[in-house]
Amino acid sequence: MGSTNEDNGPAVIVKKPNPQNAANTAKIQVLEAQLKRYDMLVTDEGKGKTRISSDGDSYRIEEERDMWLALQKTEPAPPPSLPTDPDKLLCEIDSEALDSEQATILASLREGDSVVASAEDRLKRIASTLEFTVDRFADGLHKLGQYHEAADRVAGRVLALAAERLDRREKATLQAAGTEHMPLQDVLRSLARFER
């Protein structure tokens, strides 16, 4: 005999919708309704109709739109004209209206001309002596180079003389010992045997 599962056929599974999907579907419907309402507001305004709604949001949106349109229609105010001469601008500022720190800064700005003049004078003095200083420096470098070359030549001569004298002494020593014709290796071997 067959089992009960085979007789009944396949089991029917009831699928329940996901609660998050259901909530999202409801939100979509609400947002679509709001979008239709805003679309109607925009098309009504384009036709010149004013629409007063009991909905506070749409009324606020209309007011905001009107304010933006009014701002777009107004012409910007021209910028205030400033004097092109900075000295004139500094003279026009009332130092009594400023606090102590600002007044100090204004005074230093007004004295800026004297600072610039003193800096220019100092630069001119430095520039006038700069050429002479650079010439002296270049002359010193040239003299130092010549001294270096002369010292190299003298050192070369001294070393050559010292080498020549050492060769003479070595030959004289070998002659005195009677080993001048013997190879140096033989002399060193005999000395090594002698020490043992």
How would you characterize the overall build of this protein?
The chain is mainly α and 196 residues long. Among the domains are: 16-70; 130-195. 75% of the residues lie in helices and 0% in strands. The chain has helices at residues 4-8, 19-46, 56-73, 86-92, 100-110, 112-177, 184-195. The mean pLDDT is 80.
Radius of gyration: 54 Å
Total number of β-strand segments? 0
Overall shape = flat
| SSE string | HHHHHHH
Overall average residue pLDDT: 80
Distance between the termini: 121 Å
Low-confidence stretches: none
Strand residues, percent: under 5%
Largest beta-sheet characterization: none
Q: Structural class of the secondary elements? A: mainly alpha
Helix content: over 70%
Number of helices: 7
List the keywords.
196 residues, flat, mainly alpha
Question: What is the structure about, briefly put?
Answer:
Residues 1-20 are annotated as: Disordered. This protein is mainly alpha-helical and 196 residues long.
